[in-house]
User: Which sequence fits this backbone?
């Protein structure tokens, strides 16, 4: 019989997984974290994980052992994985097999974007889950405010806000801490079965807006400009990013260049029972 207070977090050592674990520790639950690298195990235990499962997510015998006995599963796929749909469907099958009370699929805002592979793969995973008979909740998060962390030093040193798409493209960027709190509330609360929740931030901002807000918060004049695709590719190669991931990121950026990624914040604020964090507050509290 699954323990209804036991929650499996796949992708536990990633940025999203860590945030979700931190938020879950505010609740009376037992957290089982699935990780691939042994060296991060102690760090995750310190963060709040009660039990570590070590293995590759595509080692399905290990994955089955991780799912077994858990009341809830939050599946967070490693980013840009070309086998994402295969993995997600396997998680769903194992949840059904082992009587998991509810599966949460961490998807993406607007998975119907067929020209962006990781959106499309998540859409297929959603479709399989909905049709499976497994009790589920699907979460569709927008682009993170935390994407500013790796470029913050460059912004402050150069006075330029540069991302690899048009300065006019708008995004309802969202604070990962808000998303993690929402995940924890949905996982531990009632009334979320068979729901699909769009989780976007409170403002539709382009790079010009973001640069202006950063200027207002820091007192340093910041200008916005697009980062050329060739420069983005070269930087990604330099840090050792796999070629397939670089290619998929460039395809994603081409779509964002034309369309941005806008969404609505109402559902996120309903789940949080408070206003969502705006960009100025995020910068002030985390980066400035």
Assistant:
């Amino acid at each position: 019989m699954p323990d209804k207070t036991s929650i499996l977090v796949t992708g536990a050592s990633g940025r999203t997984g860590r945030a979700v674990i931190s938020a879950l520790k505010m609740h009376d639950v037992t957290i089982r974290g699935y990780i691939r690298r042994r060296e991060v195990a102690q760090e995750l235990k310190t963060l709040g994980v009660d039990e570590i499962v070590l293995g590759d997510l595509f080692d399905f015998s290990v994955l089955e052992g991780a799912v077994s006995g858990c009341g809830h599963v939050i599946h967070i796929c490693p980013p840009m994985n070309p086998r994402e749909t295969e993995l997600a469907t396997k998680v769903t099958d194992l949840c059904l097999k082992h009587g998991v009370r509810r599966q949460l699929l961490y998807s993406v805002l607007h998975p119907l974007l067929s020209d962006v592979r990781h959106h499309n793969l998540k859409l297929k995973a959603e479709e399989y889950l909905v049709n499976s008979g497994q009790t589920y909740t699907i979460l569709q998060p927008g682009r993170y405010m935390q994407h500013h962390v790796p470029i913050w030093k460059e912004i402050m040193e150069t006075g330029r806000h540069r991302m690899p798409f048009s300065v006019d493209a708008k995004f309802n960027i969202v604070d990962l801490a808000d998303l993690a709190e929402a995940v924890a509330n949905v996982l531990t609360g009632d009334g979320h079965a068979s729901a699909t929740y769009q989780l976007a931030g409170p403002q539709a901002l382009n790079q010009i807006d973001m640069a202006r807000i950063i200027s207002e918060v820091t007192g340093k004049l910041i200008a916005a400009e697009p980062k050329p695709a060739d420069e983005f590719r070269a930087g990604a190669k330099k840090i050792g990013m796999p070629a397939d991931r670089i290619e998929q990121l460039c395809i994603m950026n081409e779509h964002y260049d034309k369309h941005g990624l806008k969404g609505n914040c109402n559902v996120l604020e309903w789940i949080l029972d408070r206003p969502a964090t705006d960009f100025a507050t995020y910068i002030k509290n985390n980066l400035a």
Summary: The two ends are 49 Å apart (CA to CA).
